[in-house]
Amino acid sequence: MSIPKPSGAAAKDAQQEVINLRSRIQTLDQDSRDLLFSQARSHHTWQDRPVGEDKIWELYELMKWGGTANNGNPARLIFIQSAEAKARLSPALAPGNVAKMEKAPLTVLIAYDTQFYEHFPTLFPIRPEAADAFRENPEKASLAAFRNSSLQGAYLMTAARAIGLDIGPMSGFNNDLVDELFLDGTALKSNFLCNLGYADTDGLFERLPRFSFEEICTII
Predict the structure, then answer these.
(1) Which of 32, 100, 124, 179 is the most exposed place for a label (fewest CB within 10 A)?
(2) Among 134, 129, 133, CA closest to 115
(3) CB under 8 Å to 98, separation ≥6 — which residues?
């Protein structure tokens, strides 16, 4: 299938926006790279400092621009902040993650909508009929939703760092139980959890190593 060539005023405006952006900024400076990646850390201890609702809105307004296949945007976010909600989540966590969640000001449940394609008329109006392939193949839809919500979870974590928050992603929990406790009766499934807040750096260990380029990368 050939890729259609964009046309019309809206497409021209979008193209010009990117040209303008690239003329204004080409790369992030070293401080920005350090904040987002090079010196960023995952945390498990937290200051007693709340994350306000305005910060949560700011976080979403930034992370929502990250790209997904067909602009499907399958991620659904549940911000677990109240004592009642945290108590509900606690039995689903691995024992080592309970204290991390309880101390964090905020825990985000990154879930995905297995019927994300039903929003294609709004989110993907250039080819809304693409939904049919997912509608007819639930396994394909579930895989696409999981993959792209994982991308969106990564966007969320990067956006959190960009607006001054610290992160602590967690996969040690019972997905089925989380689905029962928070997503029952919906088309949503849990992907992973991420604690958010302002880190207590006294809890940091030394930074763990990473692979070198030569160990895991191939140019062909």
Answers:
(1) 32
(2) 134
(3) 90
Q: For residue range 81-129, what is the model confidence (pLDDT) as tens digits? A: 999 999 999 999 999 999 999 999 999 999 999 999 999 999 999 999 9
Q: Residue 130: count other Cβ atoms within 10 Å of its Cβ.
A: 15
Q: Rounded CA gap, 79 and 55, in Å?
A: 12
Residues 6+ apart with CB under 8 A from 132: none
Distance, CA of 208 to chain centre: 23
Q: Name 69's Cβ contacts closer than 8 Å, sequence gap at least 6.
A: 144, 147, 148
SS3 of residue 17 by DSSP:
helix
Q: Which helix (H) or strand (E) holds 207?
A: none
| Mean pLDDT of the region 70-87 | 98
User: How far is the C-alpha of 109 from the C-alpha of 158, rounded, in Å?
Assistant: 16
**Which tens digits make up the pLDDT trace of 20-35?**
999 999 999 999 999 9
Cα-based distances in Å from 192 to 93, 108, 111, 209, 216: 11, 8, 7, 23, 25
Distance CA 3, CA 162 (A): 34
